[in-house]
Amino acid sequence: MQKWECPCGYIYDPEEGDHENGVEPGTPWEKVPEDWVCPKCGAAKEEFWEAD
Fold it and tell me: Can you give the pLDDT at residue 49?
């Protein structure tokens, strides 16, 4: 699954999810809630880009 990168450098990895913020492991980016924000800096989901 595609990983997504925040401007702060945090990488959202669908295999890991973000359990502490309600995103279960195995959740693809498309299924992450629109109001989810980066757990490291608080950036909006729309600010992320596809990681290399």
Answer: 98
Beta-carbon contacts of residue 15 (< 8 Å; ≥ 6 apart): 1, 25, 26
Q: What is the mean pLDDT of residues 3-23?
A: 98
Residues 6+ apart with CB under 8 A from 14: 1, 2, 3, 26, 27, 28, 29
Distance CA 15, CA 13 (A): 5
pTM: 0.93
CB 40 within 8 A of CB 6: yes
Nearest to 40, CA basis, from 17, 14, 6: 6
- The whole-angstrom separation of Cα 15 and Cα 12 is 9
Q: Which two tokens stand for residue 41?
A: 């800096």
